[in-house]
Design brief:
The protein is of the alpha+beta class. The protein is 43% helix and 14% strand. α4 packs across α5. The longest helix is centred in the last third of the chain and has 22 residues, at 99-120. It starts with a helix and ends with a strand.
Length: 152
């Protein structure tokens, strides 16, 4: 994985300027509680709810609310209830959210969702979309979502 440019200086300052790799850095700065939280976010559980493939935490009322809108399709419902703004993955008041970190995270998150969905639901092929806003500085615009490709 490429190290985002915005992290290079911080990682390079470790070990008297000799630097440190990402895995070693996590070993020095991370903790198990956060690791467990990130696992839940990065490798979520998915569920089938009334024919919709969603994150397991999604409430049936939320699904029905979008499904009952005029013109709703399974794809449109799944795309909206499954979308996440990557900037929301940070803790409140986080100051180090940058475009390069969101791009790195989004690309890997897309691959992880694709693998996870294919593993959990091999009979329900899905599309995973990592949306990059036209304005790269719109940090809240970076999103990930998914939907089923075909009706089973």
């Amino acid at each position: 994985m490429d190290i985002p440019e915005s992290m290079r200086a911080e990682l390079g300052a470790w070990n008297g300027g000799a630097g440190i790799d990402l895995e070693s850095w996590i070993g020095c700065t991370g903790n198990f509680a956060q690791a467990v939280g990130y696992v839940a976010m990065l490798w979520p559980k998915f569920a089938l709810v009334e024919g919709y493939l969603v994150r397991a935490r999604t409430k049936v009322e939320t699904i029905r609310g979008f499904a009952n809108r005029s013109g709703a399709t399974r794809r449109s419902v799944e795309a909206v209830v499954n979308h996440e703004h990557l900037a929301d993955l940070q803790y409140y008041g986080c100051k180090d959210c940058t475009t390069d970190k969101l791009l790195t995270l989004g690309k890997v998150l897309k691959e992880m969702y694709e693998a996870n969905l294919a593993w959990q639901f091999p009979d329900r092929p899905c599309t995973v979309e990592f949306y990059i806003p036209d304005d790269a500085a719109d940090l809240y615009g970076y999103q990930i979502t998914f939907w089923q490709n075909e009706a089973p």
